[in-house]
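Model it.
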Amino acid sequence: MSSELAQIQQQMLNAVTGTSTAVQECLQSGPGCSSERGMDVYRNNRRVVLKSMLSSVYRMVAQIVGDDFFQALIHRYVQTLPSLSGNLHLYGGEMAAMLRAMPEADGLPYLGDVAELEWAWHECYYAADSADFDMAKLAAVAPDAFAQLRFVLSPALQLVRSDYPLYTIWQRHQPDSEVVQVDLGQGGQCVALWRPYGQVQIRPLSRGEYQLLLTLQQGASLQQAVESLDGLTDGDTEVDVQATLGWLLQQRMLVDISLAD
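Modeled.
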C-alpha cells in the first residue's frame, strides 16, 4: 500500500469517526451533493451498522431496560467507543464496563453482569473451532503424573461469575420461560457457556466448579487447580473433580494436555 493511499484512508477514517472535519480532503463535491453531505452518508452508515451489531448482541439488556433507554445506551456507546478492528464481531465488548459506570443504571446493579453474559455468549459463538482431543494422550499419562497435567481448553469455553442470580435472570428472559420472578437476594451464580456441536450451551456452575475450571483455563496444573479450592470461603464449593473433568471430555472442551514443568 502506498503512503499516499494510506494517508487518504486515514483522513477518510478520521472524518467518518468525527476526529477530523477536513472532509474536503477525502471527498469532492459534485452536482447536488456537497462533500459534507456525502460524508454524512458515510457517518450515518457507520452508526447504523455499529448500533445494529450492539442490538444483535445485547438483546436481554434491551428487554430489561426498554427501547428508549437501550437506544440512548447504544448511541452513547457508538459515540464514545469507536470500532478498532475490521472484524465487526469484535465490537461491543466494553458494554458491561459502561453499564457498571453509568449512574443511570444504578437501580439495576446486575445489568453489567447480564451484559457480560451476553458478550460471553457472543464470544463463544464466534470462537475458533478446535480439533478433537486425542484420547491416546490421556491414556499414556502415568497415574502418578496425573496431578501435574495442564489442560488446554476450547477457546469457546466462557466462564462468568456474578454476585446476582445470573442464570435465573437468563432463564427469566428466554421464550416460554416458567420463571415468573427473580429474587435478587437468593445469592450469586456462576455459569459456563460452550459450543460442542455448533450450538451455544449454557449451564449453572457451583462456585467450586467455576474456580476449578477457571484455574485450569488459566494454565494451572490439575493439582494447583484443586488446591485453589481451599481458598474458597463462601458456600456451594463442593466439587466432584473427576465428574467435572469427564464433563470437559464429553462436551468436547478439552483440546490438549501437557505435563507441568
